[in-house]
Each structure stands twice: as structure tokens, then as C-alpha cells.
Write a structure and sequence with these properties.
elongated, Lipocalin, 8-stranded antiparallel beta barrel, 1 helix
Length: 175
């Protein structure tokens, strides 16, 4: 993404909250991370997210181990990414809550899918926050669920994202 001279149109988030949840007949599974990073260019609408898979933590350590080794193959596919473009161009100088739609490429487990995701962009006293909730189907990203644990793991995972952005400040002192 290009940064305009003032740098005012580029926003970053280094601690996006990600929550994954699946409900299955035997047990519900939930994982959380605060290690998501994101960049939003308000002038172009470009939005990018990256999440280290191993940053997702589960209540049970064995569940986390199986998630990383058996399903997500985290050593081979260490992160999930999304790169897209927001269709709306909210006025970031005005407080408010704006429904937004982003279309782009979601890459999970080495498989890229075109996705359109809805969300909310909120401006409050100059602070920009984005939230979204969407479903990811394991089969869409070639994540295999062995028949033996089919009743323990759902085929669809609900993903919630919450990111609070700050204006990007370049480290360079030139103006």
C-alpha cells in the first residue's frame, strides 16, 4: 500500500483480537488471539490482516496442540491472511458507526478463497475501530477433520475480528 505524503490516510493495528468458535455435538471449541496485525488505507480502501496461527490459544493445551499439528499444520502454514478492498469510503473525520463490505482474498492453510465480508467501522473521537463476524468452512481451505473426531469438531468455524487502529507514523524524519 502506498502512503500519502501526510501519512494521514494509513492506519495500523498491531493487536487485533481474533476469536474462533465452533459448536459440535460433543464439545464447543473456542480460541483467542490478540496478535493479529492490520493495515487500512482509507484513501484507497485497501485492508490487510495477518494472524500467526500459533497465536490462537485454547482453554485446553491438548486441543491447541492438535489444532496446530493435525488440522492447521502451523509449521507448514504459519499464518492466515486477508487482503481486500472496502467498497464504502466512510468519512473518518465524523464520529459514527458505518456498515462496511470488504471483498478480497482469504488465505488459510495454504488455500486462497475470494471472500466478501461485512463488518462495522466505528469512529469515536478520532479512534477508528473495525469489527466483523464471518464463517470459514474447513473444507474450503482443505482442513481435514478425521471421521473419528467428527462429532468433536464443527465443519464451519465462526470468526470474530476486532481491531482498533492508530494513524500510521513513519519512522523517517523527512517531510
Amino acid at each position: 500500500m502506498s502512503i500519502n505524503q501526510a501519512g494521514q490516510d494509513v492506519y495500523t493495528c498491531k493487536n487485533a483480537k481474533i476469536n474462533m468458535y465452533s459448536s459440535a455435538p460433543i464439545e464447543d471449541i473456542e480460541a483467542n488471539s490478540t496478535a493479529g496485525v492490520s493495515v487500512y488505507n482509507a484513501s484507497t480502501g485497501e485492508l490487510a490482516f495477518s494472524l500467526p496461527i500459533r497465536s490462537l490459544h485454547f482453554p485446553k493445551s491438548l486441543m491447541e496442540e492438535h489444532f496446530n499439528s493435525d488440522y492447521m499444520e502451523s509449521d507448514k502454514y504459519p499464518k492466515a491472511t486477508f487482503k481486500g478492498k472496502m467498497q464504502e469510503h466512510p468519512d473518518l473525520t465524523k464520529d459514527g458507526s458505518y456498515p462496511v463490505t470488504v471483498t478480497g482474498e482469504l488465505e488459510v492453510h495454504g488455500v486462497t478463497q475470494t471472500r466478501t465480508v461485512t463488518g462495522n467501522l466505528k469512529i469515536n473521537n478520532g479512534v477508528l475501530t473495525m469489527t466483523s463476524e464471518f464463517i470459514v468452512k474447513c473444507a474450503d481451505h482443505h482442513i481435514e477433520i478425521p471421521k473419528i473426531v467428527f462429532h468433536n469438531i464443527a465443519e464451519s468455524i465462526r470468526v470474530r475480528v476486532a481491531a482498533t487502529y492508530a494513524v500510521y507514523k513513519s519512522n523517517s524524519s523527512s517531510k
